Amino acid sequence: MTKSSSGLACCCCFPVLLFLLVVALGIPSFLMFVGVSKLDHCPIEPNIPKWMICVASLIFLQVILESVRPIKDRSMRCFDCSIDCCSFLSLLLYISRLTLFGVTILGCVLVYAIIPFHNGCDSLLYFTAFIYCVLALISYVIASAFWICCCCCAVIGRGGYISVNANVTYTETEVMTQGRDLKFVV
Questions:
Q1: 10 Å Cβ neighbour count for 84?
Q2: What pLDDT does residue 82 have?
Q3: Per-residue pLDDT averaged across 84-92, rounded?
Q4: Average pLDDT of 43-51?
Q5: What's 80-131 look like in SS3?
Q6: Nearest alpha-carbon partner for 101 in 67, 48, 58
Q7: Radius of gyration over alpha carbons of the chain, in Å?
């Protein structure tokens, strides 16, 4: 790669990185700001601002854990320790993701339950929570569909299992011509 092409790649990646940084830190910052500043502005459902603060905190935690995990992965490779710190960070990340999913569902119940009475809340507070819930549910559906498609492709791509007669001996040439590993089913 030449200097001009690497500079061009850097210029092209910078806006994408900046956009991801704004999304990763901007959304929870806005949720936190609205939740804290409008803490007492929703008498019909006073838990919505607290929910927004909780969601923002969980998103910040995920961003931090996602940032720290690759650093720990690189530094832990050269040490042989009995406790795998990388696994602990990964476990914390998965727990925070699962918690965020549950808290998002809880927030959707809180927000959608007061749709007919949303005039009892501050408009900015309610519509911020409502839009976050809609976008979060859409992203969870897309992520789930993508995950299911990847799993289906992995299963289909494997070719499944081959039934092999256990009494027949196969030579190395016969195994190599199959083009895949034989799985023995008894």
A1: 12
A2: 47
A3: 74
A4: 94
A5: CCCCCHHHHHHHHHHHHHHHHHHHHHHHHHHHHHCHHHHHHCCHHHHHHHHH
A6: 58
A7: 25
Token pair 């990964």 is found at: 90
Q: Do residues 86 and 75 make contact, with C-beta atoms less than 8 angstroms apart?
A: no
Spatial distance between the Cα atoms of 143 and 59, rounded to a whole number of angstroms: 17
Q: Tens of pLDDT along 161-171?
A: 555 555 566 55
pLDDT at 186: 46
**For residue 159, what pLDDT is reported?**
59
**Total number of residues shown for the chain:** 186
* Encoded amino acid at 126, one letter: Y
Please classify residue 69 by burial: count the beta carbons closer than 10 Å to its beta carbon, then call 0-12 exposed, 13-18 middle and 19+ buried.
middle
Q: How far is Cα of residue 77 from the mean position of the Cα atoms in its chain?
A: 25
Report the pLDDT value the prediction gives residue 63, as an integer from 0 to 100. Answer: 87
Which has the higher per-residue pLDDT, 55 or 66? 55
Tell me the C-alpha distance between 47 and 56, whole Å: 14
**Tokens 């929870």 belong to which residue?**
28
Report the alpha-carbon distance of residue 159 to residue 114 in Å, rounded.
Answer: 50
Cβ atoms of 104 and 136 within 8 Å: the answer is yes
CB under 8 Å to 176, separation ≥6 — which residues?
none
Contact present, 94 and 17 (Cβ < 8 Å):
no
Helices (H) and strands (E) in the chain, counts: 5, 0
